[in-house]
Amino acid sequence: MSTHDITLTVNGTDHDLTVASRTLLVDALREELGYTGTHVGCETTRCGACTVLVDGRALKSCNVLAVQADGRAVETIEGVANGELHPVQEAFQTEHGLQCGYCTPGMVVTARALLDSNPDPSREEIREAIEGNLCRCTGYHNIVDAVESAAATLREDSA
Amino acid sequence: MSESTAEERAASEVFGSRVARREDIPLLTGTGEYTDDVRLAGELHLAIRRSDHAHARLVNVDTSAAEAHEGVVAVFTGDDVAETGIPNSIPTAWSLPGLVTPQYRILAVDKVRHLGDGIAAVVAESREAAHDAAALVEVEYDPLDAVVDPVAAVSGDYPPVHDEAEDNVAFDFTLGDDALVDEAFASASHTVSVDLRQQRVIPNAMEPRAALADYDPHTEDLRIWMTSQNPHLHRMLLAGTSLGLPENKIQVIAPEVGGGFGSKIYHYPDEAVTAWCSMQLGSPVRWQATRSEGYLTDCHGRDHTTTAEMALDAEGTVLGMRVETYAGLGAHLSQFATATPSYLYATILSGQYAIPAIHCRVVGAFTNTTPVDAYRGAGRAEGNYVVERLMDVAAAELGVDAADLRRRNLVPADAFPYETCVAVVYDSGDYERAMDHALDLVGYDDLRERQAELRDEGRYLGIGVANFVESAGLSPSKAAGQLGAVAGGWESSIVRFDMSGTVTVLAGTADQGQGHRTTYAQIVARELGVPLDSVEVVEGDTDQIPQGMGTYGSRSAPVGGGSIALAARDVREKARTLAAHKLEASEDDLEFENGTFSVTGAPDRSIHIQEVAHEAYLGFDLPEGMDPGLEATQFYDPENFTFPFGTHVCVVEVDAETGEVAVERYVAVDDCGEVINPMIVEGQVHGGVAQGIGVALYEEGAYDDDGRLRTRRMDEYAVPAATMLPDFETDATVTPSPHNPLGVKGVGESATIGATPATVAAVCDALAPFGVTHLDMPLTPEKLWTAMREGEVS
Questions:
Q1: Which chain A residues are Cβ-neighbours of B33 within 8 angstroms?
Q2: Substitution target from B18, B24, B664 for chain A, most A beta carbons within 10 A
Q3: Are A100 and B513 in contact (CB < 8 Å)?
Q4: How many whole angstroms separate alpha carbon B74 and alpha carbon B67?
Q5: How far apart are CA B572 and CA B8, in angstroms?
Q6: Closest by alpha carbon to B14, among B612, B594, B576?
């Protein structure tokens, strides 16, 4: 089986590693580099638990080969909090937007990407943005509340 | 009860408040550790080769190619397991009269009985090598006819799933007085009947099941991390029934668990195989289910085919019900597979209504499908669905408003405790108050007017009202034992001060997202008057917590919380004795408020309970006969179930062109007794409603006639997404449980039980102009479109 030497920049840190052609980005992150906050829920790109940002764009890392991420900047849930909780994370706690927490890293990362591109989304737009991230615990209502509330905080912070 | 509770609530603002969850930070930052995140040195990876047939004899299993694959350490078959002489049995935990219990082995030996039955265990140095090699195990099958439908299974037209049950009947259960029901039907002015199918659903916890086993051949200790809702039960079953190890040599750890909804209660073959492989090889072995593996092996829920009849008098008073159900059990008897469709189902068929006569027969059928077991709402969901559908069909046939017919039959508020004719005693309730509140919130009368207006425009609004009652916290142990349970319904907790005055709770329940570490700390903070931050809660590790029964059946708050409250009260009483000694006062003269013992009338003579704890551990100056230390263990065995209840109202509009359902409003009024943390209760209701709507509109674990599961991936099974669900409107009434130390009832399953009949009622109500009184779930656009095309607008 052929292998490849690649560099992944994860949360600002460069990692040189050798991966098999078929190694998925999620497995490189979890198994090779120990970023276990990114979860595997379905391996068919449906659930979104493995969502990470690649060059700022939310992607499902079970659907990306590690070699495809060579040289790119990957942000995982471990990189979202910068000393203190990101406003999105804070809002998820305040609004009780998580229960078992398994989908939460993917959900937070997706919400972050949404608010980068649309700082004032409607509830409808929030629901559409997280449609690719399944949660089996919350029924989404509080997640939508959390994203709405985080959006307001971020708008205030940037005003 | 309610008065003293109100006083206690005033004494501490912590209990009953929206305290933010302390479990959130690790989950939000990615440091929370789930089973598949745990890493051990030298671990090996297990993949399980599973059956490609629903029903076949195993002619030959050739492992040579798999063994030769690079990185493979060992390949084991069912014969290899059997040769080690272990008990090799996955048990059912509830016996019924006449129950047939074939041996459920941890790997198949003679036959495979459902798609996904385990045939061989492949252990390799990497997960990829294990999966690659598993595909190389060559299995020669002699296929047999398969049966998936529970009615067909017992028809005599199919070969037996197990030789022990030639007719495929595992049990034939009845409850209620047949003769009394016959009399009710003979004297009725109206009788109605409905055929119901409650389809198979698949739990789909976001975290797939996993196990990591580490057996030390020198000490003979087995440590296993696993996705468990009840680590102590898993410890007991691994010890006694599958592996045959001493129970005190096993440590089961359930770290963060990513949702369960019932699916992680049961002892599955997989974690037993994982542990057995570790025992054979002397190395840690890791097994992580893929999602598609989960669809084949996680226990499915529901699978009932029912004929239900109701007899009513001229005023719409229900006189009796007759229910016959064929319950699919799948290919093997899972842990609660027998209890769910019998005692948890038939005993709740009275719903919120005063019904004098009910008779229920349940035939439990073996089929060539994944085992069926309890899924959120288990048994209670299926039972309430039957009585609620009958109410709607009866209302339609009698030309009475569906809410009115329900109101006429409610158990009145002054009738509690209320003994139903199906062998349970409802502890407390005020059903009409919750129902009125829900109908007010949704604006029921206005909605009916709007419905009529829209119908004139060719738009189809539907309003569904569902009342429900749940039996929560299976208990008491003695009664459960007499009815066939192999384990009791108690819970055990330890509340322990340490020398510096902080408190640790060791709880026998096990969290999968319910927020126990927060709510339990709220209980202890109130009982002991200590700051919330002084309380730590430990769960999910059998070496830290001596005993426990786990988390399922809405038992954590009423039973687990009850044991914690009682343990805390024991601690408080010992502290009172020591405080009296230190203050040189009589115990009877001591007041206790906000953690401080003070002498009545002399408030400056006081000592805080955290100082008392310090003294208790110093041990220098204790009352005569008192042992040092300040902790208590409680085994709390409730005197009865608790019975949460509520009314849910669903409002939908069905698109006449496409058959699509839009849920416009969803109002839920729940009564779970006293509320420890309203934020967490609301979250449980939201999630429960989502799953209940999912069952009604979207979800189905579907098989073809050959026993092939057609929904084997997450993109084939409709777990509701954010765009498929509405915002929820929730509220509560509070009717405390009279027999519980906290007055709590539990809330984990209630909303799922209410949401399914409310949603189905709304859709059927929308299609009333097309002559529809009932349609089976899931209510897909295609099904509704067809019903509208076949019906005539009246």
A1: 36
A2: B24
A3: yes
A4: 6
A5: 15
A6: B594
Task: Copy the structure tokens of residue B434.
Answer: 């919750």
Per-residue pLDDT tens for B718-757? 999 999 999 999 999 999 999 999 999 999 999 999 999 9
**Contact assessment for residue B274 and residue B285, using Cβ atoms and an 8 Å cutoff:** yes
Q: Which residues of A touch B725 (CB under 8 A)?
A: 139-141
Which of B21, B29, B752 to substitute to test the interface with A, most A CBs within 10 Å?
B29
Please report, in tens digits, the pLDDT of each residue of chain A (159 residues total).
799 999 999 999 999 999 999 999 999 999 999 999 999 999 899 999 999 999 999 999 999 999 999 999 999 999 999 889 999 999 999 999 999 999 999 999 999 999 999 999 999 999 999 999 999 999 999 999 999 999 999 999 998
Note the pLDDT tens digit of each residue in B662-676: 999 999 999 999 999
DSSP 3-state of B784? helix
The amino acid at residue A125 is E
A58 has which bridge partners?
A53
**Interface contact B687-A134, CB threshold 8 A:** no
How far is residue B691's CA from residue B204's CA, in Å, rounded to a whole number? 10
Residues near B33 by Cβ (< 8 Å), separated by ≥ 6? A36, B26, B255, B256
In this structure, are strands B56-62 and B138-143 parallel, antiparallel, or unpaired?
antiparallel
What residues contact residue B679 under an 8 Å CB cut-off, 6+ apart?
Answer: A96, B18, B19, B20
- How many angstroms separate the CA atoms of B268 and B275, rounded? 12
- Out of B128, B258, B727, name the one closest to residue A101 (CB): B258
DSSP assignment, residue B240? I
Do B258 and A100 lie within an 8 Å CB cutoff? yes
Integer Cα distance of B254 and B35 in angstroms: 7
- B707-to-B115, B160, B262, B414 alpha-carbon distances in Å: 7, 14, 24, 51
Asked if the model's pLDDT at residue B1 lies above 50, the reply is no
Give the list of residues 6+ apart from residue B91 with CB closer than 8 angstroms, or none.
B104, B237, B241, B267, B335, B486
Q: Do A144 and B292 touch (CB under 8 A)?
A: no
Residue to test with chain B: of A90, A137, A143, A148, most B Cβ within 10 A = A137
Q: In angstroms, what is the C-alpha Rg of chain A?
A: 16
Can you tell me the distance from the alpha carbon of B625 to that of B632, in angstroms, rounded to the nearest whole number?
17
pLDDT tens for B275-284 read: 999 999 999 9
Give the residue from B688, B684, B668 showing the smallest Cα distance to B676.
Answer: B684
**Packing angle between helix B444-456 and helix B431-442, nearest 10 degrees?**
50
Task: Pick the closest to residue B740 from B665, B672, B791, B686 (CA basis).
Answer: B672
B31, B205, B723 ranked by CB distance to A136: nearest: B205
Tokens at B174, concatenated = 């009845």
Q: Can you tell me the distance from the alpha carbon of B113 to that of B203, in angstroms, rounded to the nearest whole number?
A: 21
Cα B227 to Cα B154, B208, B264, B298, B693: the distances in Å are: 35, 8, 6, 12, 26
Residue B319's identity, in one-letter code, is L
| DSSP conformational letter for B741 | T
